[in-house]
Amino acid sequence: MSEERIKELLQELHEGVVEYDEERVVAASNAVLAEGFNVYNAVMNGLAAGMEEVGELYDQQEYFVPELLMCADALYAGLDILKPHIDPADVGSSGAKGQVVLGSIQGDVHDIGKNIIKMMFEVAGFTVHDLGRDVPLENFVEEQLKTDSEIVAMSAMMTTTMMGMKKVVEMIKEKNPNVQIMLGGAPVTGDIADLFGADGYAESAGNAVQEAVKMVASLRKLQS
Amino acid sequence: MTPKERVQKFFKKEAIDTMPVFSGMGTVTIQAIEQMGVRFAEIHTDPELMGKSAMLSAEMWGFDGVVVPYDMCIPAEAMGRGATLYSDVEGILYPTVPTKWASMDEVELPDDYSTLFSQARMPVVDGALKYCLDYDGGKYAVGGWALGPFTLGGQIIELDVLLKGLAKDKARVTAFLESMTEYVITMVRHYQDLGVDYINIREMGSGTDLLSPRMWKTLIKPNLDKVFAAVDVPVINHICGGTDLIVEMMGDCGADAISVDQKNNIVESRAKLGDDALILGNFDPYKTLVQLDAADVDAAIKACVDGGVDAVWPGCDIWPDVKAENMKAYVEAVHKYGGAATPAVGRL
Lengths: 224, 348
Description:
- The structure holds two protein chains of two kinds.
- By secondary structure, chain A is an alpha/beta fold.
- Chain A has two domains: 3-93, Methyltransferase, Methionine Synthase (B12-binding Domains), Chain A, domain 1; 99-212, Rossmann fold, CATH 3.40.50.
- Helices cover 62% and strands 10% of the residues of chain A.
- Chain A is built from ten helices and five strands, in the order H-H-H-H-H-E-H-E-H-E-H-E-H-E-H.
- Chain A has helices spanning 3-18, 22-34, 39-59, 65-82, 88-92, 112-123, 137-147, 159-175, 190-196, 205-223, and strands at 99-104, 127-130, 151-155, 180-184, 200-201.
- A five-stranded parallel sheet of chain A has the order 2-1-3-4-5, sandwiched between helices.
- The longest helix of chain A has 21 residues, at 39-59.
- Chain A starts with a helix and ends with a helix.
- In chain B, strands 1-2-3-4-5-6-7 form a seven-stranded parallel sheet.
- Chain B contains 14 helices and seven strands.
- Chain B is of the alpha/beta class.
- Helix content of chain B is 46%, strand content 10%.
- The chains are: A alpha/beta, B alpha/beta.
- The A-B interface holds A 61, 64-67, 69-70, 73, 106-110, 112, 115, 134, 158-161, 163-164, 186-187, 189, 191-192, 195, 204-206 and B 84, 86, 89, 91-94, 96-98, 100, 159-160, 163-164, 166-168, 208-212, 215, 241, 245, 285-287, 291, 316-317, 319, 321.
């Protein structure tokens, strides 16, 4: 395949995500398979790179959450086609993956931020154990122990639900102090994450997206 | 001047003796609930427990007004979406809606929203409001509240469907939001008829954390305009999260006051809206009443007054498990700094 064609396909995937054009992403993804282009390269430097730009557009207040969600749909449209065809050897060489237990805390039925973060983790090659929303506190602990995941990521969209995260941090750290715990959601601040004993946080649902995008960007740099 | 008179005059922008201590969001605290010998989960289903917990909290800390109910899923519950009450869970969890519609195709809306007042916990709200209105000879101001049309819609249908639909399925989403507007109007008129002193419209899912200012102008504001035009009692336009980019439009919706949270630059908002606008806000209730040392609460409240609010409001519901010393410091600070006239409200 010519360099020009590779560039063209990556651009199609990238722009299709940014412009939330699912049909364009589907067409480009099918072309990647039909023309024998490296699938992992297409995911990381086409789809994920597009989502990286989406994060920047959100940061610049050019895009808002509706656009993010539509871009995510476009990205998933491509992932659904490409992911089954990723060569494990390509993924295995990057060395920057792990397992994440993810969920919205009990009492909180908001999961938009959580689902976007899930997508970014998946794009980055993590194995995600998504517990969903309104997750009973002990389920985070049980799932981490069962899967031996390196990261537990919890989100709460409201002040009235975030207190449960403190209990989960305590429960997990007691069982396994090496687990990295990330908190996210609108009411969570760095102070609160520190107070709750977590290892990291995203300032808001929106920033959680940015953090996830940055995470993917760093992973891509590590992998390049 | 009774607390009720103080709040009523406040909304008429008539001179009062001092700044009222009240909110458009929940101010129930665990100290009052424990005094009643009940659990937090119990106060959402019994009109007397709901009303009494509000009034005891007001008496305990020195509030001028109360607001009930405490959770936001009752209207969705009345439409058959259910409610998870967490009765068996230790600690404080607010009820949530467990079964939102997953697509626009599933939406079934009633012809007459007034039929919903007999459904689910709607009668509990009516009973609690009546309890508060009658309490101690009607001495306290009583606020009703409703979600704004967009936020209410997000309680009934999955929010991502609604958000994407704003762009991809605009005709159906617009019609759905217009119907939600009718629901909100029906509710606020009902609470007005019960005799509440003010009504807070919490369109809290519409800040610029989620929506662009352009989308807010075209899809949120027109419905809020209709709600505010339909109510005679004082009504507040409350949005939490990012509001700096839309605060002028918020002030132009026809509400008697706007309420913003701690993310708002209140000094700039006052400059944009002018001294005649009633502005309520904008301290962080969790940080101020739970995290801070009590000695630092005074400065947090003073910052709101110095910023130009007419009444110091928390940006959201007060987290019930507050520190008692912080609550005392909060109310004392409002009295301390609220003696002087504010931009829109004079003093006797």
